[in-house]
From TrEMBL:
<protein>
    <submittedName>
        <fullName>2-iminoacetate synthase</fullName>
        <ecNumber>4.1.99.19</ecNumber>
    </submittedName>
</protein>
<keyword id="KW-0408">Iron</keyword>
<keyword id="KW-0479">Metal-binding</keyword>
<keyword id="KW-0456">Lyase</keyword>
<dbReference type="InterPro" id="IPR013785">
    <property type="entry name" value="Aldolase_TIM"/>
</dbReference>
<feature type="domain" description="Biotin and thiamin synthesis-associated">
    <location>
        <begin position="1"/>
        <end position="105"/>
    </location>
</feature>
<keyword id="KW-0411">Iron-sulfur</keyword>
<dbReference type="Pfam" id="PF06968">
    <property type="entry name" value="BATS"/>
</dbReference>
<dbReference type="InterPro" id="IPR034428">
    <property type="entry name" value="ThiH/NoCL/HydG-like"/>
</dbReference>
<keyword id="KW-0004">4Fe-4S</keyword>
<dbReference type="InterPro" id="IPR010722">
    <property type="entry name" value="BATS_dom"/>
</dbReference>
<dbReference type="GO" id="GO:0036355">
    <property type="term" value="F:2-iminoacetate synthase activity"/>
</dbReference>
Amino acid sequence: MPRLRPTKCDDSVGSDGVSEKELFAVLCAYRIFLPYANITISTRESEKFRNGVVGVAASKISAGVSVGVGEHSEDEKKGDGQFIISDCRDVEQIYTDMKALGLAPVMSNHIYV
């Protein structure tokens, strides 16, 4: 559930974009109308927001991801970061934090559709 933000090459999305409050309202609406839908919250969102939404509307949160252009390939030249990561916790820290919130984290490396 990413929200649009300005990029290096395109600033058509203003800095006043979608607030966390508005994003939370949209996520809750999705959860009400699509109760079995998978809702993943990206590392682009803040730690505080992700910790709050995971107990209410999110079914998954990402952790330990690489979002830079070309970062998944050893052979390609590394590009600039495509997205700014706001939640820089590693996988182990997110796991610990989810348990502290009373959740039972389930780890997955691959998701097949």
